[in-house]
Amino acid sequence: MKKFYLVLIGLGAFAFFANGQIKLTFNSQALVIGTSHDFIFNQAVSEGTDGANVLWDFSGLQPVARKLTSHMLNPDSFLQSKEIPQANTIIEEFGNHFYFNVQNDIMEQYGTVSGNVVTRFDQPFLKLRFPFTYGDRYTGNYSGVQESANSKIPIKGTYEVYGDAYGTLILPNSITVENVLRVKQSRTIDNGNGNSLQEITYRWYSKDVRYPILVIIKYITATSSNIAEVAMYAHAGDRNKSATTIGSVETFSNLEVYPNPVENQLTVGFNLGSANKVSIRIIDETGRTFKTLMSSKKLDAGNYSYTFSANENTIKPGLYYLQVASGNDLFTKKIVKR
Predict the structure, then answer these.
(1) What pTM was computed for the model?
(2) Class of domain 256-337
(3) What angle do CA 254, 257, 262 make, to 5 degrees?
(4) Distances (CA, A) of 332 to 93, 115, 135, 143, 178
(5) In this predicted model, which residue has the larger pLDDT, 215 or 264?
(6) pLDDT score at 192
(7) How far apart are CA 258 and CA 299, in angstroms?
(8) Most buried by CB count within 10 Å: which residue of 69, 163, 273, 316?
(9) Strand 132-133's sheet: what is its strand order?
(10) CA 65 and chain centroid, separation
(11) How far is the C-alpha of 127 from the C-alpha of 204, rounded, in Å?
(12) Which pLDDT value is given to residue 286?
């Protein structure tokens, strides 16, 4: 079983101006526990060009029926944080917890907790060095282990972080943001089967907003290239700081989804602490229900595992979202169909 998780804010860096050019530093945009950041998802678009004084025109972005609020949380509030003791800050997105160690000059990711799947990095991702500006670049390796009740899998890969462009960003509703820096993060993901997947994330930063104002994520394999996410800061028009209050964050109990990427069959395993109705559906990149796998099925408390065919002609290679709902709990997991 191989899993990977996306994190939109992952490079939570900061911006100020020096000699007219944006620079990312610790003091103005570090991850701050108790804050949140609202995203609106959009249909897939290209990331545009790199270089100096670029004009990125994303005025034609088309929103889809998906939104996200990223929460910055205190690890002390979660029992599973003992599994990743190096972390001092958590980013929560779609029920996934991303564990970071944030210092004055560096930010590193030490792991991820998603349901009962725990990923620990003995060699962490070096997400960002401070300060960071256009033209800065660094590379490295990461490694660790991914554990669940049924498996323990070594993971490894390489990464590169590059300040590849700066310029002006045009967004829908006549929003223009000048002096933005684009940070390109590339990493390889070893799937353990001889195949390699490359994940590339582009994040645009401005001096006025603590976290990214635009994020585009794409996957590249030997045979395909797919835009996975296009997410815009929901308050880009007034560029206010994000909300500082956080509601309750629920996660689905002990959820497993594997293999991911999937070719033939997809297994969904979970635990119910009490009897409840469960629904499982696949959502496409536009946010619409693509296929319902289970509809409000009444289940008793206990452990469950269901296997679904991924060989149907209607399930084309690409990016999808698996959504599992039970009572007030809702879990959304990105899946890749090969």
Answers:
(1) 0.72
(2) mainly beta
(3) 170
(4) 9, 11, 36, 25, 34
(5) 215
(6) 60
(7) 21
(8) 163
(9) 15-18, 21-24, 132-133
(10) 17
(11) 15
(12) 63
